[in-house]
Amino acid sequence: MKVAVIGGGWAGLAAAVELTAAGVDTTVFEAGRVPGGRARSITVDGRRLDNGQHILLGAYREILEVMRRIGADPEQLFDRRPLQLVDDAGFRMALPKWPVPLNVAWGLLTAHGVGWREKMATARWMQGVKARGFRLAANTTVAEWLDGAGQTGELRRHLWEPLCLAALNIPAGRASAQVFANVLRDSLGSPRREDTDLLLPRVDLGRLLPEPASNWLAEHGATLRFTTRIDALETAPGHVTVAGERFAAAIIATAPQHAGKLLPEMTANYDYEPIATVYLQFGPRFRLPFPLFKQTGKYGQWAVDRGDGLIGCVLSGHGDWEALTDEELAATLQAELPASGPATWQRVIREKRATFSCQPGIPRPACVTSHPRVLLAGDYTWADYPATLEGAVRSGRRAARLLIANRDNSPT
Ligand SMILES: Cc1cc2nc3c(=O)[nH]c(=O)nc-3n(C[C@H](O)[C@H](O)[C@H](O)COP(=O)(O)OP(=O)(O)OC[C@H]3O[C@@H](n4cnc5c(N)ncnc54)[C@H](O)[C@@H]3O)c2cc1C
Predict the structure, then answer these.
(1) SS3 letters for 186-249?
(2) 2-74+203-270+362-409 belongs to which homologous superfamily?
(3) Does 389 contact ligand 1 (Cβ within 6 A)?
(4) What is the DSSP letter of 159?
(5) Where does the Amine oxidase domain start and stop, copy by copy (predicted)?
(6) How much is the pTM?
(7) Rounded to an integer, what distance in angstroms lies between the CA atom of residue 403 and that of residue 372?
(8) How do the domains of the chain map onto residue ranges?
(9) Residue 84, SS3 per DSSP
């Protein structure tokens, strides 16, 4: 069986690895020059950087499985730490390396900057949410959910709202409560302690998965065609034609705005949220109090310590920051960091359509389409999750597994 995978982001690569491992003759068509899509490495002023700072969780299990399969060792490539949330306003919540749910309970009850009564009320509320299987009654926003639960104090400001923005890339006032609850279910609410960990990459994004996956694919006989944008698919009852070549099936693993051009029935018309990453280079000895540091200034959201004095500040979702020039943004964020001197180098990278806007009730297309030989993958098709690397990888593997399961019925 020959399969075309259109898109070499994390979804497409995960699909291609799954197919190739099952002996399927796979070709990946990628419009860009490098693999990784919205999570790739770029070179700026001779430095290898990420196109945007990414944060991963221990709950991202399928990414870890794919990494192990392609020989990218997660133990080496991630700095795995128990979850800790530290901000510049005195809030600190650190989970100990204890079994669940003791770790979360202890972290909550010993959090700095929150009153005892609020902690107890939150612990009771979390118990209730867990008991109901993290299923919410209706299509509500995170803000409505928290309001209804009386979560209106310090934990909302220092924990829930920042977590929502980090995970869903959209402020609580517009974010889907159910999708946020799904993320909590699989992280803080998981029965596995490791799922609550933070995974801080020790290397750039390209070296985590896209490059080892591309190398593994090439070594195992798959074909990778970079700088090859596919403008149309020709579907016939027995095959799909991509770039003049016949395939038994195709997986469209692009972002939704590109999938719509290849498959007219894919009409999901999303809004998108931007992300800016502001890289600031300080002296090599500059360190943040914790590698993932919450900023509470006017614009700053998260600052990530990349080592050797390089800090990546993240601005997620639409906001006033978009009106600032790169210079203004860098200067403002620099002033909000506890650095003693000015940055010696800076770069702002803006991704205007970083993620689909994860609002309540938005349509999430299925993997299967009306054409039995054309499947969809990509973060937006993994309905349980917001736009995440894990959702992308799971969606790619799901599409590949469906094709593998149907392989015996394919004549080509
Ligand atoms: C700045 C930033 C920060 C983020 N932070 C996080 C984070 O902290 N944690 C997290 O989990 N997620 C984060 N995300 C989201 C995450 O990056 C995405 O969910 C994930 O990368 C999506 O992968 P994908 O394969 O579904 O899509 P994409 O990465 O968009 O891949 C699609 C690929 O298809 C290619 N393509 C498109 N059209 C065609 C065509 N016609 N022919 C051939 N190729 C085509 C594109 O070039 C692209 O390489 C962030 C995203 C951004 C941009």
Answers:
(1) HCCCCCCHHHHCEEEECCCHHHHCHHHHHHHHHHCCCEEECCCCCCCEEEECCEEEECCEEECE
(2) FAD/NAD(P)-binding domain (3.50.50.60)
(3) yes
(4) I
(5) 11-403
(6) 0.97
(7) 10
(8) 2-74+203-270+362-409, 83-196, 272-356
(9) strand
Residue 355 CB–ligand 1 contact under 6 Å: yes
Atom of ligand 1 nearest to the CA of 353: 53
Q: Which atom of ligand 1 is nearest to the CA of 13?
A: 25
Ligand 1 atom at minimal distance to the Cα of residue 32? 47
- List of residues 6+ apart from 398 with CB closer than 8 A: 367, 377, 382
Q: Do domains 2-74+203-270+362-409 and 272-356 have the same CATH topology?
A: no
Arch. (CATH architecture) of 272-356? Alpha-Beta Complex (3.90)
- Residue 359 dihedral angles phi and psi, to the nearest 5°: -95, 165
- Read off φ and ψ for residue 313, nearest 5 degrees: -95, 135
In the sheet that 302-305 helps form, which strands lie side by side, from edge to edge? Answer: 92-94, 84-87, 292-294, 302-305, 310-316, 272-281, 345-356
- Residue carrying structure tokens 């209106």: 152
Query: pLDDT digit string (tens) for 120-152?
Result: 999 999 999 999 999 998 799 999 999 999 999
pLDDT tens by residue, 56-69 = 999 999 999 999 99
317 in ligand 1 pocket by Cβ < 6 Å?
Answer: no
Q: Tokens 């205007």 belong to which residue?
A: 352
Q: At what angle do helices 102-109 and 116-131 cross, to 10 degrees?
A: 150
